[in-house]
């Protein structure tokens, strides 16, 4: 599909993972994350096994490690929070590197957040890298998400750029007339610009609605593309969560 | 082709009056008949009520007085869906018109809303995109196209409905000269009734053999475009100005029905 331009999270390639129907991949990622979250945090080897599973998926999808690692940066704010835990959680203390007193339950909590968070984000990054935004929406629609939410999401994708562009033009217009936002004294101007942008977007919404009515919109989006999946495709998509489930069960048993 | 149902005009507006809810009256009894296969330019200064008139044609606004009929079918609540299929409005800003994630889905929106599915839908979409020369852009998101391309796709989104009348709102605005000419070629190649709302008088002369002037909510003139543009007194009275150096008398009048037998 999409020739040329695509979202920057997406990485165009031909691979078995790219070819899987979007709703299969969504379900697989969702189940995988659930399984990971249910794993006991003391089963360190289980997390290593999950990481290997994801690495296998990445290899199958021809997504290089560097691509995934760069996109993991989004996780940083949460990781920062995790690093605080060993210092704030009460409990048995342990001395690290000879001078750092940290709590043992805090360390476990930090590890828990860090490991499960990273695995979840990596799975999502892989999903986004192998599935176009448009296909994701079709998948969500197929998974019976309320149509109104899918419509709102698709309009966000369609008009995100238009609104950003409008915002940029307003900013250029402000600066062309010698305005630079410096300090709280100028916040009033920025707030008014935000208000104007809101009104413009609102009015555009009305015009879009008018155009939709003119073309026969009656409250529901017509189904144009029907995403379908064969049993083989479902089985292929289930490979990741099933393998993870086996690891998880072992983790509880051992 | 064009004279199959020649008795029923594509558009018949009689005594149309409308006041906005805030009391501002925009139309004071408009009478306008457009025969099947005609291309008519609707001229008029800003605020003359052109957009208000257009929004009556497919029942977005409901007439305060008077009637609108499209191919003999009165515009009203009971057959709104049918009317909206017959009247294809191309709005001025293609970003308002193209609201789906890809060009193909956008063109498919109208017919799919009317219940068309599967292979028939695909074929209709392809044909409409080919008519505006945009077939190879079917899978692109609309916001990645140039302005001229977006306007052509906007035309395709209404052509796919096989409308009785195509209403173009300022079709040449924001287009560079090449895109402007390409759009003119497309409009000329279509065998469909066209009502073109515009400020671009040379464009009106190029495409439409007949022009009407809407001024202060009523039709002030209705004549062959070349003759109308040459009437300086009339033009001045309705705030219509030709671009510098443009002489309507020196420009050959458009053939009345190119492509028609």
UniProtKB/TrEMBL annotation, chain A:
<dbReference type="InterPro" id="IPR003339">
    <property type="entry name" value="ABC/ECF_trnsptr_transmembrane"/>
</dbReference>
<dbReference type="GO" id="GO:0006824">
    <property type="term" value="P:cobalt ion transport"/>
</dbReference>
<dbReference type="GO" id="GO:0043190">
    <property type="term" value="C:ATP-binding cassette (ABC) transporter complex"/>
</dbReference>
<feature type="transmembrane region" description="Helical">
    <location>
        <begin position="72"/>
        <end position="90"/>
    </location>
</feature>
<protein>
    <submittedName>
        <fullName>Cobalt ECF transporter T component CbiQ</fullName>
    </submittedName>
</protein>
<keyword id="KW-0472">Membrane</keyword>
<keyword id="KW-1003">Cell membrane</keyword>
<keyword id="KW-0812">Transmembrane</keyword>
<dbReference type="InterPro" id="IPR051611">
    <property type="entry name" value="ECF_transporter_component"/>
</dbReference>
<dbReference type="Pfam" id="PF02361">
    <property type="entry name" value="CbiQ"/>
</dbReference>
<keyword id="KW-1133">Transmembrane helix</keyword>
<feature type="transmembrane region" description="Helical">
    <location>
        <begin position="43"/>
        <end position="60"/>
    </location>
</feature>
<dbReference type="InterPro" id="IPR012809">
    <property type="entry name" value="ECF_CbiQ"/>
</dbReference>
TrEMBL record, chain B:
<dbReference type="InterPro" id="IPR050095">
    <property type="entry name" value="ECF_ABC_transporter_ATP-bd"/>
</dbReference>
<dbReference type="GO" id="GO:0043190">
    <property type="term" value="C:ATP-binding cassette (ABC) transporter complex"/>
</dbReference>
<dbReference type="GO" id="GO:0016887">
    <property type="term" value="F:ATP hydrolysis activity"/>
</dbReference>
<dbReference type="Pfam" id="PF00005">
    <property type="entry name" value="ABC_tran"/>
</dbReference>
<keyword id="KW-1278">Translocase</keyword>
<dbReference type="InterPro" id="IPR015856">
    <property type="entry name" value="ABC_transpr_CbiO/EcfA_su"/>
</dbReference>
<protein>
    <submittedName>
        <fullName>Cobalt ABC transporter ATP-binding protein</fullName>
    </submittedName>
</protein>
<keyword id="KW-0472">Membrane</keyword>
<dbReference type="GO" id="GO:0005524">
    <property type="term" value="F:ATP binding"/>
</dbReference>
<dbReference type="InterPro" id="IPR003593">
    <property type="entry name" value="AAA+_ATPase"/>
</dbReference>
<comment type="similarity">
    <text>Belongs to the ABC transporter superfamily.</text>
</comment>
<keyword id="KW-0547">Nucleotide-binding</keyword>
<feature type="domain" description="ABC transporter">
    <location>
        <begin position="11"/>
        <end position="241"/>
    </location>
</feature>
<dbReference type="InterPro" id="IPR027417">
    <property type="entry name" value="P-loop_NTPase"/>
</dbReference>
<keyword id="KW-1003">Cell membrane</keyword>
<keyword id="KW-0067">ATP-binding</keyword>
<dbReference type="GO" id="GO:0042626">
    <property type="term" value="F:ATPase-coupled transmembrane transporter activity"/>
</dbReference>
<keyword id="KW-0813">Transport</keyword>
<dbReference type="InterPro" id="IPR003439">
    <property type="entry name" value="ABC_transporter-like_ATP-bd"/>
</dbReference>
<dbReference type="InterPro" id="IPR017871">
    <property type="entry name" value="ABC_transporter-like_CS"/>
</dbReference>
């Amino acid at each position: 599909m999409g020739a040329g331009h695509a979202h920057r999270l997406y990485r165009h390639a031909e691979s078995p993972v790219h070819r899987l129907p979007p709703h299969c991949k969504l379900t697989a990622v969702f189940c995988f994350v659930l399984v990971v979250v249910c794993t006991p945090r003391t089963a360190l080897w289980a997390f290593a096994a999950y990481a290997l599973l994801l690495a296998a998926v990445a290899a199958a999808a021809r997504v290089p490690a560097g691509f995934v690692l760069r996109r993991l940066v989004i996780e940083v704010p949460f990781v920062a929070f995790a690093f605080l835990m060993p210092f704030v959680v009460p409990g048995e203390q342990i001395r690290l590197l000879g001078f750092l007193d940290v709590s043992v339950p805090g360390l476990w909590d930090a590890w828990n957040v860090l490991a499960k968070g990273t695995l979840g984000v990596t799975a999502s990054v892989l999903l986004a890298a192998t599935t176009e935004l448009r296909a994701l929406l079709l998948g969500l629609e197929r998974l019976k998400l309320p149509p109104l939410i899918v419509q709102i999401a698709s309009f966000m994708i369609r008009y995100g750029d238009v609104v950003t562009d409008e915002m940029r033009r307003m900013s250029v217009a402000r600066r062309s007339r010698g305005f630079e936002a410096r300090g709280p004294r100028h916040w009033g101007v920025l707030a008014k610009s935000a208000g104007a942008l809101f009104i413009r977007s609102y009015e555009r919404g009305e015009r879009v609605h008018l155009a939709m009515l003119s073309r026969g919109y009656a409250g529901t989006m017509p189904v144009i593309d029907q995403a379908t999946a064969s049993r083989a495709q479902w089985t292929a998509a289930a490979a990741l969560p099933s393998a993870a489930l086996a690891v998880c069960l072992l983790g509880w048993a051992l | 082709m064009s004279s199959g149902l020649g008795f029923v005009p594509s558009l018949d507006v009689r005594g149309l009056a409308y006041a906005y809810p805030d009391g501002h009256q925009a139309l004071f009894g408009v009478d306008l008949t457009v025969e099947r296969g005609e291309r008519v330019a609707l001229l008029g200064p800003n605020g003359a009520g052109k957009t208000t008139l257009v929004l009556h044609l497919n029942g977005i606004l409901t007439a305060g007085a008077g009637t609108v009929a499209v191919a003999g079918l009165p515009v009203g609540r009971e057959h709104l869906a049918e009317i909206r299929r017959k009247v294809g409005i191309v709005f001025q800003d293609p970003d308002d018109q193209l609201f789906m994630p890809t060009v193909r889905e956008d063109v498919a929106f109208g017919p799919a809303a009317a219940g068309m599915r599967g292979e028939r839908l695909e074929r209709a979409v392809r044909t409409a995109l080919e008519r505006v020369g945009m077939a190879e852009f079917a899978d692109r998101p609309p916001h990645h196209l140039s302005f001229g391309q977006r306007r052509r796709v906007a035309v395709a989104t209404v052509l796919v409905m096989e409308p009785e009348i195509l209403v173009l709102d300022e079709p040449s605005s924001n287009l560079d000269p090449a895109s402007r000419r390409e759009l003119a070629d497309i409009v000329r190649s279509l065998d469909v009734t066209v009502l073109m709302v515009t400020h671009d008088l040379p464009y009106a002369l190029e495409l439409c053999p007949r022009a009407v002037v809407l001024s202060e909510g009523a039709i002030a003139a209705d004549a062959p475009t070349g003759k109308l543009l040459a009437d300086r007194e009339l033009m001045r009275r309705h705030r219509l100005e030709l671009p510098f150096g443009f002489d309507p008398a020196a420009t050959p009048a458009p053939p009345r029905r190119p492509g028609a037998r």
